[in-house]
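Let us work through a complete example step by step.
Step 1: write down the sequence.
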Amino acid sequence: MLPPPTVPASLLAVLDKLKGCFTTPAFRTFTMLVTELVAQTSRRTVTGMLSGAGLARLWPHDRAHFFFSRAAWEPELPGIVLSHLVTRTLLPEGAPLVVAVDDSLFKRSGKKVFGACWQHDGAARGPRPVGRGTCFVVLGLIVQLPFLKRPVCLPVMARLWWPGGEKTKVELAASMIRTLSVCHSRRPLHVVADAAYHGRALRDLPASVTFTTRLPAFAVLYDLAPPRTGRRGRPRLKGDRLGTAADLAGQMAFRRAEVVRYQRRDQVLLAEVSCLWYGSLQARTVRVLLVRETAKDPGKPLLALVTTDLTARAEQLVARYAWRWSIECTFAEAREHLGAGQAQSRSQRAVARTVPFALWCYTITVIWYTLHGHHPSDAADHRRRSPWYVTKTEPSFADMTAKLRRTVIAARFSAVDPAQPAPDEIHAVQRAWAAASANDAP
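Step 2: predict the structure and record it as tokens.
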């Protein structure tokens, strides 16, 4: 029987920040589940977390299932604490928060899984973008790490949505945005989302929150309300009809600009106008940005953005919206490397907790790697092990997960006192693995 797994001191230093979110027994279970979710390389179901560490013979399986389905802890509190940890450790003092909002489908089978049904799946392959599973609306903080050129989205909140529920996806997103703005009242929030997120739920966001999204093709814009005439009667709330973004493109003057997006500098044509999107945001003044790639192809579809940020430069807004793509990368990496969505829970509370738990592990892994795990030679070591990656210059999330996994394994087989293993110890474990593999080969 294997001894109980040892949590590395560096990882425990990060997890201790979440200690106030749980009772003492629940926190011990949470710590072990986080550690073993990262260390596990096979199926990452609830029981798989225990089996991968040998805890299946030490703990009853119900201890892990109880943590997700019946334990008394608030699902959003760990995310709020993580958001404060991100702002304190990965962002400059007083810097605004860039927040990405999106939803993703985590495929599930079984008739008794709460909230599982056939829904739109943007990540589906094939001509039909549908799949059966549970859908979560996720809110993440976008940060620029010192050792990466690309931005990284760190999930902090996630809520389950299902057809026929009490709230729409936009209402769930607006509720999480309000909660985050209250928790970080001293920092402005710049929220970015795709074209699916618009509507009346966003009309009453706090003054410190700006919202930028892609303007739907059917959205009708209006000029600002004219000044009052002094006559009796209700004043006009909107001006003349301007039309859709396509209508405006033929009337506006474009200017050349350089924008930084997707780790490159692009020359584009920009045009902007202040107006009203009355059907969605009513009388709140917005800015509409039209982005055209080149003047050589005037028939190429426009990128139309609408934002409530009235002060930022147009180039900054285009770059900010491009950061939204980082949340799509987070979904893919959380599924592939942490098994988000693989848990087989069926009850409402367990279903609503397991996916956010895996997304929190993504954020915890990135925080740990930034504070304790990163070394400038990580990318060079990877190129040395895999010489075909000739262009690799910075670590990926797979590298972060692998390094934390090696740290957990090294701490488990080192002294009783868990400590951060030295590079020589990690390399010794790797050489032992290689020797064992060579001996087992025919």
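Step 3: interpret the result. The mean pLDDT is 87.
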